[in-house]
Amino acid sequence: MTLEEFKSTLKDAQPNPNWNVQVQALWYDAKGDWKNAHDLIDHLNDRESAHVHAYLHRVEGDLWNARYWYNRAKQPEFTGSLEAEHNQLLELYLN
């Protein structure tokens, strides 16, 4: 799935249940539903979920917590815009 195809699903009421949890969380975030996005990954311990978790705390403005999750994900702290990070995460986890 391309980024454009993903964006076209934002009109839907729910994310595709066949998507991985990281993409579902990013879908909720794109819809402005931070709580559902966070709730999907908050309890997960894998690196991919930690990476999305870091981004979500950056969205929230909690940079200390975001840095903790970047470290857990073994990823460098993202310094670009939130939109750029969201797109990068989608490119990583859509396929």
Describe this entry's structure for a reader.
With about 100 residues, the chain is an all-alpha fold. The protein has a single domain (about 20-95), classed as Serine Threonine Protein Phosphatase 5, Tetratricopeptide repeat, CATH 1.25.40. It contains 6 helices and no strands. The protein has helices spanning about 5-10, 20-30, 35-40, 45-60, 65-75, 80-95. Helix 2 (about 20-30) runs antiparallel to helix 3 and helix 2 (about 20-30) packs parallel to helix 4. The longest helix has 14 residues, at about 45-60. It is globular.
**What does the average pLDDT come to?**
96
Estimated radius of gyration: 12 Å
In percent, how much strand structure appears in the residues?
under 5%
Molecular shape: globular
For the record, give the distance between the C-alpha atoms at the N and C termini, rounded to a whole number. Answer: 7 Å
| CATH architecture descriptor name | Alpha Horseshoe
CATH fold descriptor: Serine Threonine Protein Phosphatase 5, Tetratricopeptide repeat
What structural category arises from helix and sheet content?
mainly alpha
What is the percent of helical residues?
A: 55-70%
Characteristics of this structure?
6 helices; mainly alpha; Serine Threonine Protein Phosphatase 5, Tetratricopeptide repeat
